[in-house]
Amino acid sequence: MNDWVVHFVQAGGYWGIAFLMMLENLFPPIPSELIMGIGGLALARGTMSFTPLLFAGTVGATAGNYILFLIADRLGFERLKPLIVRWERWVTLEWEDIEKAGHFMRAHGQWVVFIMRFMPMFRTTISLPAGLAHMSHWKFIVYTFLGAGIWNTLLILGGQWLGHSFAQADKWITWGAIAGGVAGVVWYLWRVLRWRPRRARVAREPG
After folding, report:
1. Are the beta carbons of 100 and 110 closer than 8 angstroms?
2. Rounded distance, CA 67 to CA 74, Å?
3. Phi, psi (rounded to 5 degrees) for 101
4. pTM of the full predicted structure?
5. Are 162 and 169 in contact (CB under 8 A)?
């Protein structure tokens, strides 16, 4: 994957970065840590500049998140309920959880979206509850852009530092991205295996 991303960035430049960051939010196997880390390496090697790199990555991330937001916004809570009830084990949520999240998103959605942009396993999925709660579109875009901009700055600077410090920095970035992906899969499987519906937990309580 590393070689493919490197070649794509080299061929597409800033447009390639923007496209990959949009794609990353729709197809998570392409992690932003790898994309912007490679961008940071290019910055260290003098083939890219910081400001257009940051702008391209942030616009791409915002666009990808907004696509998910629009899908959820069109879907709405009413159409989602049968899916959650049917697949609650695999999403490790019950409908009551979705309703509570919706109320919270309506009250504090912009700050949740902003903060979740720094959480590797939640920065993309937060777009779905924001859309389901019909959060203000402009608030979603602004706070996603700000959060993504800060996150991308950290990734770029990290990639730049690795590029200056290590000869094989691209391998460090690749293995770091893989490790993060594996950790996310393990965490999800752990949740699925340990998850119990609320009705089963209540039935097991004494009295």
Report:
1. no
2. 11
3. -65, -40
4. 0.72
5. yes
